[in-house]
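Sharing a chain and its predicted structure for anyone who wants a worked example. Both blocks are below, sequence first, tokens second.
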Amino acid sequence: CALLRDQCSALLPGGAAASPDESEEAAIDRDISLLDDARSKAEAESHEAQLALSATDGALRECAAELDDLERGIRRFPENSRRLLDELRAQGIEAWILAELAEATNDDWSDAVEGWLNTLRFAIIVPPDSFQQALELYNALPRSLGGVALPNVAKLRGRADGARKGSLAELVSSDNPWAATYLKAVLGDVMTADIATLKSYDKAITRECMSYSGHTAMRVREEVYREHWLGRAGRERRLEFLRVELARLRGERDGHEARQREAAGKARAYANGVRSLYEAKPLADASMEAGRLEG
């Protein structure tokens, strides 16, 4: 029994110190309690690692699937923009998502362009003579399909013609005439600035994405422009990100798997120790009885 207790105690961090006047039975009960506590903690750690492993597996599958789509030229635009686009095309209306048609032409200012446009990057562009038909179809769709801009390009030509020199409109381009008109209209009065000149304009933004409008400064949230969506450059940046992210997630998965395996192994070892000590208790009782008889 003493040898078994020593072996079981060795499983615990720092071992288990025995009291000099402690009976064999009491020592076994103490070691069982300590080992059972350790087993419980190891099982909790194993469960936590398994949950993290499952979450990482899900993220890995999603990342790999998006990378595969993107390498085949398929960009995963927000669901409502994609749904409206599909509905319009199904009715024979020419339609595009703005981000497919636009290119940021200055890397230093691409964050600012993406950040200012924000959800307008996913606006649906239709020919001016199709706007009313597209509007009626949009209106007939379920209310859950919302939050997607549908520009009336014909009414924006005047604003587009007034695009100012030094505005964000000069930092984007499009081969699609209706997308180009829309970009000039929404960006043509947003001036590029630095912190010293920001408040000099009605609307302005710095390359670091500090915006100014309505006499109010506000930094654009980083998550808005962290993922670039505009044109080929946005696609290439997303490809690069996904490849790096895939490698990172694989490393993270390996770490969670190793932690889960180690914790599960400890839990099994502690459980075996508890079972062995329970099985040894009758021997301890018999030993104590024999000692009393001999005495």
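Comments welcome. The chain has a mean pLDDT of 89.
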